[in-house]
């Protein structure tokens, strides 16, 4: 993590903050997500039926891929100096562009879009996160992630 002042963070708007390590999305992870969410559509959990689809096998839930964003921070993730706590504030935009096949690895590329002083020690960050699939041209998803840092 990179600790910066609010002014330094605002100067980094538009900058690529780097990429996370690769994360394997295997069938065990997909099945566990299906169990937790109750989304047991065959395309995710039945390899035999999924083999008959255009995907040629099971794919991760889009929301599984999206949920991994929180754990896939780049080494240069920004933290504001004096932070007491940070919370997930939500998303402005999410687009699922390509499914992630079971057994593929993904990583998150982060680009800082904005840092806004919301007063009372609250600072809103907007980060474009692109989930890349190893060996694929097209990413799995692109999202505009909002985070609130309390200083």
Total DSSP helices: 5
Poorly predicted runs are none
Please tally the β strands and state the result: 8
Structural class by secondary-structure content:
alpha+beta
Rounded to an integer in angstroms, the radius of gyration calculated over CA atoms is 17 Å
Secondary-structure element series: EHEEHHHHEEEEE
| Through-space gap between termini | 16 Å
What is the general shape?
A: elongated
Q: In what range is the share of β-strand residues?
A: 35-45%
Mean pLDDT: 96
Helix content: 10-25%
Largest sheet: 6 strands, antiparallel
Key traits:
single chain; 151 residues; alpha+beta; 8 strands
What does it look like?
The protein is α+β, with helices and mostly antiparallel strands and 151 residues long. It has five helices and eight strands; from the N terminus they run βαββααααβββββ. It has helices at residues 6-11, 27-37, 42-45, 47-50, 62-67, and strands at residues 2-4, 16-19, 23-25, 78-80, 85-96, 104-119, 122-133, 141-150. The strands form two sheets. Strands 2, 3, 5, 6, 7 and 8 form a six-stranded antiparallel sheet that branches. It has a two-stranded parallel ribbon with strand order 1-4. The longest helix has 11 residues, at 27-37. The radius of gyration is 17 Å and the shape is elongated. The model has no long low-confidence stretch (mean pLDDT 96).
List the helices and strands and how they pair.
Layout: E1 2-4, H1 6-11, E2 16-19, E3 23-25, H2 27-37, H3 42-45, H4 47-50, H5 62-67, E4 78-80, E5 85-96, E6 104-119, E7 122-133, E8 141-150
């Amino acid at each position: 993590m990179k600790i910066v002042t609010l002014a330094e963070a605002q100067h980094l708007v538009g900058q690529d903050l780097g990429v996370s390590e690769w994360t394997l999305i295997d069938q065990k992870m997909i099945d566990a997500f299906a169990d937790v969410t109750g989304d047991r559509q065959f395309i995710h959990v039945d390899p035999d039926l999924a083999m008959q689809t255009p995907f040629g096998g099971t794919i991760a839930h889009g929301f599984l891929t999206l949920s991994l964003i929180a754990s896939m921070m780049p080494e240069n993730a920004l933290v504001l100096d004096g932070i007491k706590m940070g919370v997930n504030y939500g998303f402005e935009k999410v687009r699922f562009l390509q499914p992630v096949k079971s057994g593929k690895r993904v990583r998150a590329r982060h680009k800082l879009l904005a840092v806004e002083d919301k007063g009372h020690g609250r600072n809103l960050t907007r980060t474009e996160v692109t989930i890349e699939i190893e060996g694929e041209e097209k990413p799995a998803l692109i999202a505009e992630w909002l985070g609130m840092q309390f200083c």
